[in-house]
């Protein structure tokens, strides 16, 4: 008897194409494998993954990058696998988080790669994560009920009949396509193009925003001053590549780090809007602390309809952060407060924040209950530590900066200030609520871009997404060695007499250099992407993206690709593509795009991956069986 007679419903293999082979694709395929026994019903599947970079790590987490670059998450805070905390319809399939893998199967792999084994509280090199992701990918492929083919090239087109066109000219006919492209390169803005042209005319070196590991730094000459605008992770990577990456080294004596220059380092004058580096990552954990549902910033409080961020959202965020801070202070450190938590919580419930200040009644309650100002939480003071200060000379400013950074290092290492950890967790919960409000269209374009994606995300990154503490210790050592200088807040840069000139309104004097680096990632704008596949789909109307405008008609640039609540692509005419899925940071409503999920954290990326995987499986299941299920 033939196979067809034994299985009269047998259909030809289904074909899925993933464009992008980074961690998002790996996580989605893990969920696909988990639910396949339940939903696929025996249909053969062929999976193609298209990416010019190695599958698993993709571009950002590839093996071919400097081993000096670190993650800004601890080893114990990263996982690709679901656990009992994840609320999803698919089965939970246990797998090692990064810390468990490093101590187990990964130990031999890291040794072969010449990498040291990090501890659970260490901030590992990105190459450690690259090895972990490569291992996870191999495990996922073994578990998939499918044949898997990888293509180390770009996808450059997608036809209306769902054929993916590769750079080589090959075409793959697909039943479903998933675009998981990660962070996209984009065309320079008009401002960046003008800077580049002016700099070229004057014989200067200008480096626009970009992913630091991919930037050509050869134009930054040894011992020459370089103006750097940006004090976040991009600056930290730049600092590392221009110091240790050029042959310098550190040693430590009696707890003090000393940098020994190679002589090939430039002198970095670094400033930004705040003028200070991002807060160091917290160097401790507290048992039982994790993000909890928001108390004030809730879906019920926001209601339905369009919101005004400053009026309707910002005051609730202010209360949410204060609540997290003071509840932890009262609970974990009662010796540093006066009165009861219930009494203080009533004052907090009755507080109505206005603008950047607090009403007098709540200020009085804080002063009475929290004697030490170091235990108080005032968001605008946290956000702008240099606000209201000015310095008559750069030496005085740099002395102040050293004390500020040293104080931050001490505090972020001390669990006595665990209220900072509570604020960190509250920030994660707040982000989840804001993402939902954006997805449901409750914020105007202007509020979304200027208030959430710029101001709020900037504050979140400053507080919650800073560098490992060791990097700030290195920053201080480089300052002592004369390699890093501090340029100040609200740093303004111009070209004057064929040179870059930088000034801060709060610091006397100016800085002159022949090189200028914008140390930050470019703002996402899918309408400006250089990716040929997306450009073609947007031009044809097969994909839709927001073009954002302020209330006065000023263009805010392009937004994200549009997808529905099930991550299916929305066309320019508003219709939904049933077999084209969009995931990642350039997609509206895509969860878990800001980083890896933490173990036992019910990460939103897991939930979205699971839902998309199950939709894919249902889409591909045998037609006869789908009809039978529908009839029943």
Helix-strand layout with pairing:
Elements: H1 3-6, E1 14-19, H2 23-39, E2 45-50, H3 98-103, H4 106-112, H5 126-143, E3 147-151, E4 155-158, E5 163-166, E6 171-173, E7 176-179, H6 190-202, E8 205-207, E9 225-229, H7 233-242, E10 249-253, E11 256-260, E12 267-272, H8 299-302, H9 309-332, H10 341-349, H11 360-369, H12 379-383, H13 394-412, H14 419-439, H15 445-464, H16 469-480, E13 484-489, E14 492-495, E15 500-503, E16 511-513, E17 515-518, H17 532-540, E18 545-549, E19 555-561, E20 568-570, E21 576-582, H18 604-620, H19 623-631
Parallel strand pairs: 1-2, 1-7, 2-3, 7-21, 8-17, 9-12, 9-17, 12-13
Antiparallel strand pairs: 4-5, 5-6, 10-11, 14-15, 15-16, 18-19, 20-21
Pfam family, one: NAD_binding_9
Protein name: FAD-NAD(P)-binding protein
Domain FAD-dependent urate hydroxylase HpyO/Asp monooxygenase CreE-like FAD/NAD(P)-binding: 17-183
Summarize the structure.
This protein has 632 residues and is an alpha/beta fold. It has 3 domains: 14-186 and 524-620, FAD/NAD(P)-binding domain, CATH 3.50.50.60; 201-275 and 481-518, FAD/NAD(P)-binding domain (3-Layer(bba) Sandwich), CATH 3.50.50; 299-464, no CATH class. It has helices spanning 3-6, 23-39, 98-103, 106-112, 126-143, 190-202, 233-242, 299-302, 309-332, 341-349, 360-369, 379-383, 394-412, 419-439, 445-464, 469-480, 532-540, 604-620, 623-631; strands at 14-19, 45-50, 147-151, 155-158, 163-166, 171-173, 176-179, 205-207, 225-229, 249-253, 256-260, 267-272, 484-489, 492-495, 500-503, 511-513, 515-518, 545-549, 555-561, 568-570, 576-582.
């Amino acid at each position: 008897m033939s196979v067809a007679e034994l299985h009269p419903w047998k259909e030809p293999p289904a074909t899925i194409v993933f464009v992008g082979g980074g961690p998002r694709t790996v996580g989605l395929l893990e969920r696909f494998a988990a639910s396949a026994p339940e939903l696929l019903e025996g249909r053969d599947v062929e999976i193609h993954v298209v990416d010019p970079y190695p599958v698993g790590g993709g571009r950002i987490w590839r093996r071919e990058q400097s081993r000096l670059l670190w993650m800004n998450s601890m080893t114990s805070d990263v996982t690709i696998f679901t656990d009992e905390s994840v609320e999803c319809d698919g089965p939970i399939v246990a797998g090692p988080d990064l810390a468990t893998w490093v101590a187990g199967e990964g130990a031999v792999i890291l040794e072969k790669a010449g990498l040291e084994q990090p501890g659970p509280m260490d901030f590992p090199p990105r190459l450690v994560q690259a090895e972990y992701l490569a291992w996870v990918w191999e495990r996922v492929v073994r578990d998939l009920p499918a044949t898997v083919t990888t293509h180390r090239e770009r996808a450059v087109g997608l036809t209306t009949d769902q054929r993916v066109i590769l750079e080589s000219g090959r075409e793959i006919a697909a039943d479903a396509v998933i675009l998981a492209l990660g962070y996209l390169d984009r065309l320079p803005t008009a401002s960046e193009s003008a800077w580049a042209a002016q700099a070229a005319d004057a014989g200067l070196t200008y480096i626009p925003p970009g992913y630091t590991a991919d930037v050509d730094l050869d134009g930054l000459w040894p011992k020459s001053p370089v103006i750097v605008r940006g004090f976040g992770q991009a600056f930290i990577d730049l600092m590392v590549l221009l110091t240790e990456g050029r042959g310098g080294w550190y040693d430590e004596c009696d707890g003090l780090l000393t940098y020994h220059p190679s002589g090939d380092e430039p002198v970095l004058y670094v400033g930004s809007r705040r003028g200070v580096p991002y807060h160091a990552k917290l160097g401790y954990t507290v048992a039982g602390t994790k993000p909890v549902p928001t108390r004030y910033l809730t879906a019920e409080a926001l209601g339905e309809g369009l919101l005004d961020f400053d009026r309707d959202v910002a005051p609730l965020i202010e209360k949410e952060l204060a609540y997290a801070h003071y509840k932890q202070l009262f609970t974990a450190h009662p010796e540093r407060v006066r009165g009861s938590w219930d009494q203080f919580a009533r004052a907090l419930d009755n507080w109505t924040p206005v603008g950047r200040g607090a009403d007098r009644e709540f200020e009085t309650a804080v002063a009475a209950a929290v004697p030490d100002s170091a235990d108080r939480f005032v968001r605008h003071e946290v956000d702008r530590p240099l606000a209201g200060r000015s310095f008559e000379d750069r030496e005085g400013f740099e002395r102040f900066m050293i004390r500020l950074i040293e104080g931050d290092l001490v505090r972020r290492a001390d669990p006595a200030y665990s209220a900072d950890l509570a604020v960190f967790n509250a920030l994660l919960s707040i982000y989840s609520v804001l993402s939902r409000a954006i997805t449901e269209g409750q914020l105007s374009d202007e509020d979304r871009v200027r208030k959430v994606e710029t101001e709020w995300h900037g504050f979140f990154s400053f507080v919650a997404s800073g560098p490992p503490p060791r990097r700030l210790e290195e920053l201080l050592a480089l300052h002592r060695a004369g390699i890093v200088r501090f340029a100040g807040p609200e740093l303004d840069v111009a070209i004057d007499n064929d040179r870059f000139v930088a000034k801060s309104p709060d610091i006397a004097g100016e800085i002159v250099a022949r090189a200028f680096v914008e140390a930050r990632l470019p703002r996402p704008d899918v309408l400006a992407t250089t990716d040929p596949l997306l450009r073609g789909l947007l031009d044809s109307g097969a994909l839709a993206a927001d073009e954002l405008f302020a209330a006065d008609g000023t263009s805010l640039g392009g937004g994200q690709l549009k997808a529905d609540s099930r991550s299916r692509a929305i066309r320019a005419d508003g219709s939904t593509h049933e077999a084209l899925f969009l995931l990642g940071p350039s997609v509206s409503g895509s969860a878990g795009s800001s980083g890896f999920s933490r173990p036992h954290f019910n990460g939103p990326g897991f939930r979205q991956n699971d839902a998309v995987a199950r939709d894919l499986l249902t889409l591909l299941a045998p037609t006869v069986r789908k009809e039978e299920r529908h009839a029943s």
